[in-house]
Every structure is written in structure tokens, then in C-alpha cells.
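Practice set, problem 2.
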Amino acid sequence: MFWKRKISAINLLKIMSCMMIGFTARSIIDFILPESSTCHPCPVCPTCDQQNPLNPKTSMMDEFKPKTRYEVLRWAYFTERHLFENLDDDPRIGLIGNFKFDVQDIISQAMEIINRESTIQYSFKRLANGYRRVDALLGVEYILDLEIKKSEKARREPRRVSLIRPFTRVQSQPVKWGEESQTVNFVVALSRVTSRVKAFMQRYEEVCLKTNEDASLFVVLFTGTTPEEVYEVEEVKNLLVSYQEQYPDAIITFIETKGTFSRAVGLDLGIRQFSEDSLVFLCDVDVGFDNTFLDRCRKNTIYKQQAYFPIVFSLYDPALIYQDSEKIPETPSQDITKHNGFWVHYGFGMACLYNQDYQTVGGFDTSTYGWGGEDVDLYDKFIKSDIKVFRAVDPSLIHHYHNRSCDPDLNADQYRMCVGALADSIGSKSQLAKKMIGLKKD
């Protein structure tokens, strides 16, 4: 009896202690948070709130309604192996990288939803049809025709699923850009003077020299072996010197190197003349540019973090563009239209990068001679490195048409790329067809 009374007294003491702690805590809370104060409401989940315009259930009812045939949001078709869409002028591409992950993930989520809504557990067997489209205000929509089974011995059942990967609220994220005060150092490799070289210097004069643009020009000259080649190199040197004399505050430099012309060797030699923290622009004489491009070159190239590989717009042969006109204009149009040219999505020759980043990834393969291949190799090296690649079309980079030929002594890959680039650059399909039909009539 004594022990029971003792235990009861102890329990009573514990209860009284807890009550005292509770009263004390409540007094502190009342002091800190008076009755007039209110807590801010918790943020609402955008995909759960029925009143939120981003909620899939309400957004689906407000699905975009096109007013003309040009506003229709097309569906891309895909299977487990391929995406069928006119991407980079290729009607079908293999599912790789992000595309492959997207398809695999949406199929997996579709099966989770099917099994969650069913008392029977199904297994995925095959994707018969897949459709995908992006609504900028809604999200990514999918329609999947699946073949599923209840068990290994059961027959396959077709099941159509409609899914949406909704967009959430727009959020700000940390962003970095290159130093806008950086000098853009042009690096060009040449072997002879041509009208194309003279046209390039005229463009450089208009954009950089006359405007006192913060830029420099560094030219690597291959001296050649024949008397004719030596003479042409002298002409290039005289041309550069004349511009330097006309603009004494400008930085126009050149060096000479012996051997067969190689773009990879020339550009590599030019880049190595600069300090590690120098911003260089690898350029060709056939490419036009303006001050807005130079601004993007600076902003999109970040020291030790990012390189800029712009996609160039290449102009078609003016003779084909104006084949229905009485004469070709002295200055053909450079408007970005499907009649004037195309985006060279497979070209990586133009690049803005820092010298140290170039050295870090390994630089050009200087064993590459002849036409093409060196740019693809450098681009792949950047992709495999820790330096990010910023890849986008640049409306200010215009490749001017010029006659070209493909050396049959090139290796198989180079010759294939050269012929492909030559075929693409002549004219559009309709222009070439019109020319062929005209020749047949004649």
C-alpha cells in the first residue's frame, strides 16, 4: 500500500510538472505572438489547387484553340527507338540522350498510373504508338498506345493513355554571363588572297575598325611552296598592313608558317599566341558578322565554364535564288528566309572560347588536313569536358556563298562531309528542281 501511494505521488508530481511547462510555454508564445498576429498561409501546390490556372485539370479545359492552320500544335510521333519529326532536316532520328530518357520515363509513369488505378498489376510489353507535343502555357502532352499484360500467359491488351507533364510557376534561377568588357580576338587561317579575303576585311573594317570596337585580328598565313602561292601570301600581308596603317590604333597581326594549309594547324597556332584568359573567336573569311554578334560572343562565353558554338545561316547561290529575275542584284539579300539559305546545324567551325578552356579540352587535332573534320573533333572534346557548350542559332552570322569543290584525295569521312555540305549550300529543293526542269526544257 505504501509503494502504491508513493508511485501515485510521483505520477502526480510528473503531471503537475508537465502542466507547469505547458503554462510557461503558452505564456512565452502569447508574449511573442499576440492574438492580433497571423501566420502567412503556406504556398499552394500549383498542380493540386483547383483554382490555380496551372492545375492540369483546369488547364486541360482551357486547352489552346488555334485560329489558323499555322497555329496548330503538331504532335511528334515516337516509338521506343525513334523520334519522327523534321529535326535538323532529318525526318527520323534515333532516341538518344534527353529524348530517350523522356520516353522511358513517361512509359514508366504511365504503367504506375495504370496499376495504381487497377486491382490487377499489369506489365508493359510494347509501345505501339507514341505522340508528344509541347504547349507553352500548359506543359508537355503525351498520348501512348501501350500493349500490356496481366500475366505472362495472358493475351496482350491495348491501352491508350493520355498524360501531361505540367509546367509549374515560372521560377528564377542563378544565371551567369561572360564579361562584356572583354576584347574579342579574331583568329583566321589563310593561304592566299582572294576576293573573299578582301570582302572579309571590308566587313571587319565596317564592324570593328570604324566603330572602335574592342576587337583584334590575328591572321595565320601559310606561305606555300610555288612562286604563285608565295606572291599571293605577299598580297595578303600588304592588304593587312594597309589596314593597320589606315587605323594605327587597331590591332591587326599576322604570322607566317610553312607547310600545306591546314585550318586546324593554323587556328591552333593562332590561339596559342594569346594569354590563357583571352577570348578568341575562331572565324572564316566567308562569314559576315555585326556588333550584336560580338556582344553575344562575350555574354555567351564564360571563362572556365562555357564555350559558345553558334549555328551559322548559310546563303544559297544567288544564281539560283534569282533565276527568275532579269539580273542578280549587286548585293543579294541576306534576309533569313527559306528562299535565301539554311541553318548549318552540322557545322561547328565558328566558336567563341577562352584560350585556357581550349587548352584544357585538348585543342584541335593538328593531324587533320584538307577540308572539314577538325571542328567536329573540337566540339566533341568540349561536350565530353566539364566546360558547358552553349549552342544556338545566331542571326548575325551569315555565311556568304562561294564556289567550292571537294578534293577526291580526302579521306572517306571528309569527302562525304564535303560533298554533303556542297549539295546543301547550292540551293533549296524547289530552286534546284526548277533549274532541272528548265534544263530539261532547253
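Problem 2, part (b): a different protein.
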Amino acid sequence: MRTAYNCNQEKLQKCKHKAGCCIDSAKDTLFALSKDIWSCAELAYEEKQSHDILVRFFTETEKGWSVESHYKLDTAFRATWGPTGVNAGGDTLNIGFLCEYDALPGIGHACGHNLIAEVGAAAAVGMKGALEALVDPPVRVMVTVIGTPAEEEGGGKIDLIEAGGFEGLDLVFMAHPSQEDAAYLPDMAEDDVTVKYYGKASHAAAYPWEGINALDAAVLAYNNLSVLRQQLKPDWRLHGIIKHGGVKPNIIPAFSELVFYLRTPKRRDLPFLREKAEQCFRSAAMATGCRVELQYGPHEYHNILLNKTLTRLYEENGKALGIEFTTDEQVLNTPSGSTDFGNLSFVVPGIHPYFYIGTEALNHTEEYTAAAGSDKAQFFTLRTAKTLVMMALDVLFNPELLKQVKEDFHLSKLKEECEVTGRENGSGPGQWGGAASASR
């Protein structure tokens, strides 16, 4: 005997199949979109061509979308479809897919953001196609695509958060290229700082004693931080460059500049690492007689909150499509990079999985740039988009799952906030001993 549950499951499976078919039907167009973005490779906040490529996709290539071409930021956009299921009553479930499209200086799309854009666009195409074929959606649903610029530098998602750009969304999905498939990896909280030393120029051979060497300050600071690493927790990171060290060997450098990134597995620890680093920067100025300026970036990136329900759903649906998720404990538990999606994960329940693109090359290398623009990456990219849609459909068809997702979100956020409060009321930066924190 067929039950209502069985009928619902059959309908769900048909929707998933339809979504996959819609994505496959658009594969050539999606690859062209990705390749065009890969080819123009624009930096943060300058992604004008990439932005326009995506806007044209949702206004001309794909029909039925309502598009705001400059959404809160010049190179951001929002495309919406729906709501559909007007007879279902109740609230509208607003499902968001995100696109990134900024590149890296010098090596282009070495982090594969063209593929992130493609995943977001493909998932939107699949979700819309599945819902259009569904006579009576279980709930009112809207599909939203938001183009988020400047992930590599600046934090476009944080700009959008502050401008209210994600208000009204119930869920946000995106996926990032990597060397393996993982539903969750522990991205780190991060802050960047530019350090400028001001000294006094003088002839380096004739009367060096008249000068104040700003390069010496930079070198001392660099070495101070290298020594500091011995006292840092194993999963804390600081790394940087000397961006400016002088203009000519026979001139005592009157100016030097460093740029450093500071990272910790949890945002609660960033202030302590920041204080230690500042001591290194300022002591170098004191030792050389230079004046120092510290300029922090416009935004601090947060770690990504783990949503256990969405992670489980992604793995279940991915395995159904043949994804082999990594079981390497070092990969799964070692903090890696940082993303402004971390900040968004504190605002809206979401997931930021990683996907294999057919290469063992490492991100931020020329080899990865080539792989991100290759035909080979397409199968893996579209399979990831299908997995995101299948997961979204699971939540759409099962209200209990949505409740679990929101409960996971609130519990993870509460735990993080309690840990921050505990830090503020407990040990400070000079009291790192005692019980280890539950860092990633």
C-alpha cells in the first residue's frame, strides 16, 4: 500500500532527477560562463566583466529571473525566482546560492572562483527547473542567487552583511574547489595588518649615523614574529611579506612596509594573537627609533560554523552521486585558509563544502589556475552543484530537517558566543596555560 510518505519520497526523487537533468542540459552554457570568468581574472572589487557575465546569464540566457545588477555593491548582484507554491500557504522558504568570481594577483583563478560562480549558477538552474516541474511544492519557496565579490581581499560578503544583503534568506549554499571532497573543513578566523615604519634617509656610506633605518625595523619585526611562532599554539598561523624595503642600497631606507595575516581556528583567539604580534611590531620600532603605523584590514574574517545537519545531508546526497569524501583525519582536522563565508555562517544557516576538480595541484598555484579552466573540472563542478540542489530539496520536502538545520545553527552560534564570553572573563593573552581550548 502506498503511503503519503512514500508518495512524498517519490516526488522528492523525481525532483532531484529533474534538477540533475536541467543542469546537464545547460552544461555547455555553464562551462562557457565559467571559462569567460576564468579568462578575464579580475581582482577584488574590480570584477566588472565577471559581474556582467553573470548578470547576462540570469537576464538573457536564463529566463524568469528578477535581477538587481548592482546589489548593495558595484560588482555584486542578486537574482531571484519565485516564490512558487502559492497554494501551500505559510511562510516562504528562501534558499540562497552564492557566486564568487574574484581572482588572485599575478596567477589569476588559482583558487577556482570561476568554478564557485559556476556551481552557484548551475545549482540555481537545477533548483528552478525542479520546482517548475513540481505541481504542488510542499511549501512556498524562493530561489535567490547572490554574487559576492572580493573574497580574496576585503570581504565582500561582510560588506553585504552590513548592508542587509542577506536579510530574508533561510539557507545559503556554496562550494569551493580543493584537492579533495569534504563536506566541511575547518577554515580559520583571520585578520590582516599593514605595518609601516618611518625613519630618516641618509647616505648609507658617507654618514649612515644620520639616518634612521626603516628597513632594519621591518627586518626586526619579521624576525620577532618568526621567534614568536615557537610560543604559539600549533594551529595558530601568522605569515607575511616585506612589501617595501627601500629604493637604493646607498640610501638608508626612510620607509618600509610589511603585510601580515594573523589566523586562529576560532575568532575568540584572534585578539590574543593580534596583541602578541603588535608587541613584535612596536618593539622593532622602539629598537630602531622609527615611527610605526598599524593599519588593520576593513574586516575580520570569522571561522565557519559547522552545521551538522547540512553536512550530513551533503554527504548523503554526494555519495549517491558517486562522490568519495576524504577520510584523511589530518585534512579534516587541520585548519587551512580563511573565507568571508565564515562571517555569513554566523548570520544565516549554511554550508561551504569543498570539492575535487580532477587535479592534485594545490590552490594558489599556476597549476591550479590551469586546472580551474580545464574541461576536466567540469564533471566535478556540476556534480557538486547537483549535490547542493539535492540537499536543498531534502530540506524543502521535510520541515523537520529545516528545524534541525536552524537548531544546529543556533546551538553552534551559542557555543561560540559562550566561548568568547568565557575568554573575556577568564584567562587573557598572557595566560595561555591550563586546559587546551577546543580549537580545530
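Answer key, part (b): The chain is about 45% helix and 15% strand. Residues 427-440 have pLDDT under 50 and may be disordered.
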